Amino acid sequence: DWRASLQAVQLLVVKLQITHAHNTVSNFKRFHGRAFNDPFVQKEKEKLSYDLVPMKNGGVGVKVMYMDEEHIFSVEQISAMLLTKLKETAESNLKKPVTDCVISVLGTAFDPFLGGRNFDGKLVDYFCAEIKSKYKLDPKAKVRALLRLYQECEKLKKLMSSNSTDIPLNIECFMNDTDVSGKMNRSQFEELCADLLQRIEMPLLSLMEQTQLKVEDVTAVEIVGGATRIPAVKERIAKFFGKDVSTTLNADEAIARGCALQCAILSPAFKVREFSVTDATPFPISLLWNTEAEDTEGVHEVFSRNHAAPFSKVLTFYRKGPFELEAFYSDPNGVPYPESKIGRYIIQNVAAQKDGEKSKVKVKVRVNTHGIFSVSTASMVEPVKSEESEDVNVETEVESQDQRPIENSSDKNIQQENSEAGTQSQVQTDGQQTSQPPPSSEPPSEENKIPDVKKTNEKKGDQPPEAKKPKIKVKNVDLPIEANLVWELGKELLNMYIETEGKMIMQDKLEKERNDAKNAVEEYVYEFRDKLSGPYEKFVCEKDLQGFSALLTETEGWLYEEGEDEAKQVYVDKLEDLKKLGTPIETRYQEAEERPKLLEELGHRLQYYATIAGEFRNKDEKYIHIDEMEMMKVEKCVSEVVEWMNNAVSAQAKKSLDQDPAVHSSEIKAKLQELNNVCEPVVTQPKPKVDSPKEENPLNERSDFKPEDMGEDEKNSEMPQQNGECHPSDQNTISMDLD
Where is this chain compositionally biased, Polar residues type (predicted)? Predict the structure, then answer.
């Protein structure tokens, strides 16, 4: 059961977190995208059991011991290790390779500092102060003690969710062999967490504002997550929506189940009920660029809050040389991280036209299916004049009056890629409608204005035909983009991380094999020692028993002393030495268990074939068809096997249980197979088939009536079929009068 496996893993993590506190990394996801000197990092650093250190790029690093050496890993590396381990676990359970996954990322409206761990922290701070006052002990001075207190406070929180009475907190040998105790009830807990409970309403208000819904529009509310079990949290959510909240989903598994459903939707191997899920960009994104005038800048919000994703837009710029775009989150206060910049993008190889005019540059910006923003492509439009008679199908920039406007424009590069988002955009940037014009002195241009079709048609009849205008053939030249992202890992650093992880995976594999070899020795010692005083006791003499027991005890002591950290081959050799004494004992036991059953089976088969031979001699009709020479072979084989069996039983009877057997199970199996191979084909011969005499057809006998003597009607009627059958092709019908 996967739930049992999950619980086992959680218990293992808890155990490791206490026994190897300084080397177990947890609660690190909030350090992504933050500098080491970030106030939040410095505050959280005090609560951690492991050491945080600054990286060369200013990011957050973790100092741990690996293979008896001190190593510093970035938060990104730690996350990669976790995902790799999860991938291995999934592959082990699925029995097949895993190539893709779905990871849930919170969005829309949330408070990153309002969760179960924050409520736990309130309890920990309270009991730290109480223990310090009551027992003169400081739990924060000892990492293991603090971790144990966190675990007990989490249990206490869960108990208070289902009980309103005082709940005791007891921890044995907490610090300096001192037992500590305390108590709290639900009312005290809610009073302690009053400031956290007051913050519940803000994300809900933000949610309603972003979805543009009223409370009256909501028909049902389902809450998930561990902290939603707290009664005070439920009450405030229910009060906000004015209706009872539903908790039909498993609070701990809901997110995982949602990810599993999304996996099924994306996978071609599963068929699910048809419905669409449109991801959204939770934070608005804008672009900033320098204009031709050095003292001004252009700004344009390319993706508004909750814009559908994935989505692409194309912006048009007019430039004589390379230029730079800076992407950033439009609302820095709405982003739960101090850094609002996304990155800088330099559009390279831009040059003026031959006549010195500015070149038209098209830049595609995109939020992909993972919610990541990028300036994906850039191209420079180079016009080439040509006569209309040369080629009417070429891509043109100036079109005749009777052509459709932008929707049918042959320049497909200006169309938004909105098919992935499943919506038709109303934005026109570079020929596509935009919800808000760029508030800049030099915005991206809007081209190909849509003419008034009615007025154009009216003027056509009154005015003489216009002179033919030369069409302009254009070609798009791809431009390189230099991207400099905030907190982006450089290629060399990324390759180094990948190489390091590969080496660690290989080292982990070797370490697992070494541990498996060590565990095999330990398991053999404990298992054999128990069996020597149980089922194996009769199959070893007293002298060998004492010697083997002493070796097992010696090996056990070696495992926990000088053999604690040996190479794999050392453990393999140690196990072989144990098996040299243990395997003969185990074999005697197994032989004693199997031998009587096989001898009994062999005796039954001998009796079976001997009985058939006797019936043959008595002229039994069942076997009288068998050749006498063949049956003699059966009798001879039975006689020989009976003699072998009697000798084997006699020899084995002279052996004690602690001696090697006179006859092995494999020999009995071979004799049984030999007996069956000789006898079975003979005694199962089928009787030969005897042909029955042919019956004369009565219709062919001479008849007193000849056909020529029959009347005309009788000649035409057919003879009746035997057994009352009628031929399917008969066309005649028989009329019968029934009385």
Answer: 406-435, 718-739
Q: How far apart are CA 514 and CA 534, in angstroms?
A: 31
Residue whose entry in the numeric block shows the structure tokens 């009697």: 646
Q: Which pair of tokens denotes residue 543?
A: 């002298």
Q: Where does the pLDDT of residue 650 fall: very low under 50, low under 70, confident under 90, or very high at 90 and above?
A: very high
**pTM of the model as a whole:** 0.67
141, 146, 149, 151: CA torsion to nearest 10: 180
* Cα 595 → chain centroid: 49
As to burial, measured by CB atoms within 10 angstroms (0-12 exposed, 13-18 middle, 19+ buried), residue 447 is middle
- Starting at the edge strand found earlier in the chain, the sheet holding 311-319 runs 311-319, 359-367, 373-386, 471-478
140, 175 contact by CB (below 8 A) = no
pLDDT in tens, 244-291: 999 888 877 888 888 888 889 888 888 888 877 788 888 999 999 987
The CB-based long-range contact list for 650-655 (8 Å cut-off, 24+ gap) reads 652/595
Q: Which neighbouring-strand residues pair with 289? A: 298, 325
What is the torsional sign of CA 463, 465, 470, 474? positive
Residue 632 tokens read as: 């003699």
The 10s digit of each residue's pLDDT in 43-86 is 888 888 899 999 988 999 999 998 888 999 999 999 999 998 88
Is residue 28 within 8 A of residue 62, CB to CB? The reply is yes
Tokens of 531: 């069996």
Q: How far apart are CA 701 and CA 696, in angstroms?
A: 8
* Helix (H), strand (E) at residue 171: strand 167-175
